[in-house]
Amino acid sequence: MKRIIAMILAVLMMATLFVGCGGDENAANGGATALEPEAGATLKVWAPDAALDVFKAQCDAFIAQYPDAGIKIEVVAQGEGDAAAQVLNDPEAAADVFSFACDQLNKLNDAGVIMPVNTTLLDDVVARNSEYSVQAGTLPFNGTDTLLAYPETGDNGYFLYYDKSVVSDEDAKTLEGVFEACRKANKKFIMDAGNGFYACMFPFTGGLKIEGLEGEDNDVQKFNDYDEAEVVATLEAFAKLFHEYDDIFESGEVAKIPSGFALEERTLAAGIDGSWDAAAIKNGLGDDFGAVKLPTINVNGEAKPIVSLHGYKLLGVNAQSKFPNAAQLLANYLSDEECQLERAEKLSWGPSNNVAAESEVAKNDPAISAALAQSANSIPQINISGTFWDPMGNLGNNLFKEDAKYDTATLTALLDKTIANVRDE
Fold first, then answer.
1. Which has fewest Cβ within 10 Å: 46, 68, 103, 198?
2. Domain with 150 in it
């Protein structure tokens, strides 16, 4: 019944979109008719707190392109991680344009609260962005694969930040080296090991991979034919390190990482975080700023590269926006080459835009370079079941908690239970 209602809402939403575009048949079918903002449009934009000033300036620049339209834009702080929940909670009160992580797209689409990319803009959006970022924003809509949101970044993943005065570049190549350097300096290493977004690195490093969705409703997570013994051995290697270095290892929210680096007496020497905190971490560490792909971990004598999840951030347009033309044009503007390049320079956000990604700004930024390097050792965050996150977080919790058992039998049972729970069996 929920899916039927969602389909009905989706049909109504598409009809509204075409009417909002003037109802022109050319426009509805990707023709050349130009999209114009509604006169007197008043829009709300959600952006992360650390990016508010940049987004405000970019919105002002957008308004200047339409001097006679009387457009007003309010930019409000809202984290990407909670954006979908807030839109779903009250679509009418939500922003017209909002930034969110790509794993939230399924929920937004199922509820019929996101408006597809306008057909007059579609070809350009697809052409200017990376293939995977476009794929991350694409889901079936009215029976056809449709781009539902504008690619905003190509680096929604994580990597290693470190204090170069404590952890050397050589230390940063291995997890054992990082932990030992932290211990020598009596400083912490922080990662959110109980969060499924990060904890999935433990089985991924051992060879487990996600391979899309299957099932009658296309909501069951599919996995590869992994080597269970290899995955279990890798889980054991992580667990042993966490317990051997429990004096310096801390599982905590990533918000603790920039603040830990910023203290006058730094309590932190290294941590796993993403580019969204790059500017704050740079400010805290100054000349001691280090960023690099995730290190290796020793598994039975083999240095295994740590494999992460790599996703994308998207800009969505609220299906209930009272000014759909202006909202579509604004989302398009905020996701174009110039705006992505500016955010790369000021915020260290890795571009999804093909030209911006090849710019000197992006190539010379340590955080963006680290995210790009780590993406080669990552699994794309595309087509992930909503049941994936909690079981993976629970797996992580069971590796580092004080009374955790990490013998082969216990970890094999934990892995099997995790997979079954992800598949909702």
1. 68
2. 2-155+311-375
